[in-house]
Amino acid sequence: MGGAGTQQTWAEQDPTARLAPVRRWVADRRLALVVELFAVLPVVAMVFEVAASPRLQLLDYWDVLLRITNADGTFDFGGIWVLQNEHPVMLPSLFYWLDASLFGGDNRVLGYLTVAIAAGTVLLLRSALPKRLPAVLRAGLVVATAALVFSPHGIHNFALGMSGSAWLTANLLVVVALLLARRGRWLAAWLVGLLACLSYGTAFAVWPALFLLATMRGERWWRRLVPLVLLAGVLVAWLQLRPSVAGQDGGQDVATVLYTFLTVVGHLWTGTMVDLAAIAGAGVLFGLLALLTIPAARARQLWFWWALGLYAVLAAGMIATARVKFGADIGLASRYTSLSVLASVPLLVILATVSYARARRTAARFAVVAVGVGLLGFVLGAPTVREVRAALEDVPLRAIAIREQLDSRFWTGITSTEALKPRLEALDHYPFTDDFTIGCGGPELGDRLDVDEMRPVRVADPDEPGPAGAVDTEERHGDTSLLRGWVTAGREGIRCVVVTNATGEVTGGGQYHLPRPDVARSLSWAPSDMGFAVIAPTDPAGRIVVVLDDGRMLWLPGKAAAGKAPE
After folding, report:
1. Coil, helix or strand at residue 555
2. Res 174: pLDDT
3. Which of 154, 82, 142 is nearest to 111 (CA)?
């Protein structure tokens, strides 16, 4: 057994010798590159979400487009200076105009722009990571940052590009301003800060962050005061632009405002539970405060991260104060996710740096923890994806309403379709593009169908498959009806559902293959996705026409009194 007694177990080795392989591992740049490549995955996932998002623009885009265009589609520069929901959106207005004039107003173009802006933010945050951290730990933090920035929690800002091109542009410019200030390039930092304030109102919080950075750097007194002076100037300008609103809601109690504030900060760390978001927000906030008491956390290399954290916390406070009237759970709104991200990432970076400074052997495990934290923040956003997708289901109805100048009061965010039409036609803006379709593969709006070729839908027989259906509900606004119901052709496939007048002219359309499990439970032979929703001018003599895969047609009366779901 010669020599066996001279061998040492790993536990018996000198600590320095034991840690040598670990140190080489965490400093391995090739391994770090492999780890960092995982940061691409959440970006790609969000690109697919944008590709699947609707072409039609939504919500505030229409209000802004009306302001920045004349009736002939030309640009109205004066319109960009009008606030949108109390937010300055000068830079986003320019993005909207470029999209409208160059890309037919495609929502997905703004979505891809938002992805690029978010990716740029991740790269900038990567450049700000402390250089003394080992390569693998830095890579783990990059992966975590990418996972949180592109978390499905914030899908609203990507699937609705008009929102992200405002919110995330402001955040990007704030990061740039703070990075410039960290390098002592104050004039450039102030100019970029002003640009951020032209993108979204939350960027006003950049000025206290710049003041903090100037103070931590020990800058001359006037450099510390300039951000505060600029903040005052921005607020004066904002008050001049802000319209006076009579009868505003009274103030909220302090507890509700604080609760909302904490839910904004902790939004990332829950799926749908508001209380858990508030608890997580308190954890993030007091985690930062606790770290502030540690000398290693106040090192020069972390000053940028403290300033960024302050920006996020103050911006979250602004949102909580301004939006609490919509309910304390407004903090879980998808569009506010980026503020929770910009509060959580500094906490993670500072904690990793302090941990490494105290015990370098923790670098490897903290890299793993960082990736795990990013993964957790990413997957907790799954419920938000379902909510946003559900909210976008009826976009085909909205497109038809705008195209046909129907009443748009069924949804929020669509202004007068009559005012939009000349602008959209002049700009060749969707849904006034040549390739617009109601998704039927023919017929299209204005086509005429032969009413004599249509077979009426009969009453459903629970035992015998065959054509059956009914209109369950009819919602009216003005001269427009939104009808919802169900229809099946038995064992035959259905291509689409349209609306015609009594002579067979197609006057409306919408969606088919919507889930109707309630009907499927009564008709065991019927598919579960037999629901439909169509919009058209109100017409008591109108017909809902079902076009089968082989071109044959069925019809049922275009009014809710026609029937109801079988019991």
Report:
1. strand
2. 97
3. 154
Q: Tell me: the pLDDT tens digits for 154-201?
A: 999 999 999 999 999 999 999 999 999 999 999 999 999 999 999 999
Q: Measured between alpha carbons, how far is 46 from 154 in angstroms, rounded to an integer?
A: 10
Quote the CA–CA distance of 497 and 315 in Å, as a whole number. 46
Question: Which tokens in the block code for residue 238?
Answer: 């904002």
Annotate 158-195 with DSSP letters as a single string. Answer: HHSHHHHHHHHHHHHHHHHHHHHHHTT-HHHHHHHHHH
Q: Which of 25-39, 197-211, 329-343, 390-404 has the lowest mean pLDDT?
A: 25-39
Question: For the chain, how many residues are written?
Answer: 567
Alpha-carbon gap, residue 52 to 304, rounded angstroms: 36
296 contacts 359 by C-beta, under 8 angstroms: no
State whether residue 28 is helix, strand or coil: coil
> 87 - beta bridge partners?
84
CB 237 within 8 A of CB 350: no
How far apart (Å, rounded) are the C-alpha atoms in residues 60 and 70?
17
In this structure, what is the dihedral angle of CA atoms 482, 486, 490, 491, given to the nearest 10 degrees?
80
Contacts of 16 (CB under 8 A, 6+ apart): none
- Alpha-carbon span 128 to 304, nearest angstrom: 8
Buried b (16+ CB within 10 A) or exposed e, 10-43: eeeeeeeeeeeebeeebebeebbeebbebbeebb
Q: What is the CA radius of gyration of the chain?
A: 29
Sequence-ordered alpha helix ranges (H) in 69-106: 90-103
pTM for the predicted model, two decimal places: 0.88
Query: Residue 205, by phi and psi: left (phi above 0), alpha (psi -120 to 50) or beta?
Result: alpha
What does the alpha-carbon distance between residue 382 and residue 520 come to, in Å, rounded to a whole number? 27
Task: Let me know: does 61 contact 162? Beta carbons within 8 Å.
Answer: yes
- Tell me how far apart the alpha carbons of residues 244 and 375 are, in angstroms, rounded to a whole number: 45
CATH 2.60.40.10 region(s) of the chain?
A: 437-562
Q: In this structure, is the dihedral angle defined by the CA atoms of residues 256, 257, 258 and 263, taken in order, positive or negative?
A: positive
* Helical H segments across 184-302, by residue range: 186-197, 206-216, 221-241, 254-265, 274-291
The hierarchical CATH code for the domain 437-562 is 2.60.40.10
8 A C-beta contact, residue 136 and residue 367:
yes
Cα–Cα distances in angstroms (integers) from residue 3 to residues 6, 8, 11, 382, in the given order = 5, 11, 19, 58
Could you tell me whether strands 543-548 and 553-557 are parallel, antiparallel, or unpaired per DSSP bridges?
antiparallel
With beta carbons less than 8 A apart as the criterion, state whether 381 and 148 touch.
no
